[in-house]
């Protein structure tokens, strides 16, 4: 079945540094990937929709300059948390779908836990 | 805007009993309803899904029912086992030409007591 690899699985960084998280679709091409943020004991909050070869579409309230998304190929999307602060600490998860006709069927990565000191 | 409500937020059952989780969606154009299981520290895993042209779907101990008129859908787990313990999320989306985003429910923490 479809596999989505997310790396790193966890990262600890100092306040003010930037952190990049990668999301790869291993056995299918994904024209669209999604990035979510999840706080402890809460649901997944969609941050942005990453479109291959074009700008990401951000959800309301998500700072595009803070969370930079790049979708340079059909198998790779990256999320960069710029100038990270402790309040950015969270579990970040990506998902990808194979496109039509099974466009809705999304596979999720294992998540990346970011801790900002 | 689009919204998916999920109940209960926590559910504790004895091993072997059944568990039912219910969701209600607001967007009448939604036509795809997946259920995900998330274990601690991991990403969500798709366990079953249903499309709006079907009223019920079953896969071994797991079944999902859909009532389009009432905009309700439910997850049923029979003969629960301790390894079923996890957080379960329902979701809804519209099917279109491109990949469409999912709207998630708030999650249900299922605890199966041995």
Mean pLDDT of chain B, rounded to whole units? 93
Chains forming the largest contact: A-B, 27 and 25 residues
Number of strands of chain B: 11
The amount of beta strand of chain B, in percent, is over 45%
The main β sheet of chain A shows up as:
7 strands, mixed
Low-confidence runs of chain A: none
What amount of the residues of chain A lies in strands? Answer: over 45%
Short description:
Chain A has strands at 4-7, 10-13, 19-25, 32-38, 44-51, 57-58, 67-73, 76-81, 90-96, 107-108, 112-116. With 117 residues, chain A is mainly beta. The termini of chain A are far apart.
Structure, explained:
The complex is a heterodimer of chains A (117) and B (114). Chain A is mostly beta strands. Helix content of chain A is 0%, strand content 50%. Chain A has strands at residues 4-7, 10-13, 19-25, 32-38, 44-51, 57-58, 67-73, 76-81, 90-96, 107-108, 112-116. In chain A, strand 4 (32-38) and strand 5 form a beta hairpin. The mean pLDDT of chain A is 91. With 114 residues, chain B is mainly β. Helix content of chain B is 0%, strand content 54%. Chain B contains no helices and 11 strands. Chain B has strands spanning 4-7, 10-14, 19-25, 32-38, 45-51, 56-59, 62-67, 72-77, 86-92, 103-104, 108-113. In chain B, strands 2, 4, 5, 9, 10 and 11 form a 6-stranded mixed sheet that branches. In chain B, strand 6 and strand 7 (62-67) form a beta hairpin. Chain B is globular, with a radius of gyration of 14 Å. The relative contact order of chain B is 0.34.
């Amino acid at each position: 079945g479809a596999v989505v690899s997310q790396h790193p699985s966890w990262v600890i960084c100092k306040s003010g540094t930037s952190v990049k998280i990668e999301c790869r679709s291993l056995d299918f091409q994904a024209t669209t990937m999604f990035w979510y943020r999840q706080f402890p004991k809460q649901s997944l909050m969609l941050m942005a929709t990453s479109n291959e070869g074009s700008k990401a579409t951000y959800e309301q309230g998500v700072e595009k300059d803070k969370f930079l998304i790049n979708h340079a190929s059909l198998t790779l999307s990256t999320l960069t948390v710029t100038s990270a602060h402790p309040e950015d600490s969270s579990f970040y998860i990506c998902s990808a779908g194979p496109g039509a006709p099974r466009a809705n069927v999304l596979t999720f990565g294992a998540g990346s836990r970011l801790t900002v000191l | 805007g689009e919204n998916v409500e999920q109940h209960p937020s926590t559910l504790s059952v004895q091993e072997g009993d059944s568990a039912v989780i219910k969701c209600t969606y607001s967007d009448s154009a939604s036509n795809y309803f997946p259920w995900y299981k998330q274990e601690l520290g991991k990403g969500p895993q798709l366990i079953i899904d249903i499309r709006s042209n079907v009223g019920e779907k079953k896969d071994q101990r797991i079944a999902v029912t859909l009532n389009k008129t009432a905009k309700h859908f439910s997850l049923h787990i029979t003969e629960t086992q301790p390894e079923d313990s996890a957080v379960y999320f329902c979701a809804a989306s519209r099917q279109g030409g491109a990949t469409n985003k999912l709207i998630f429910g708030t999650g249900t923490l299922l605890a199966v007591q041995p």
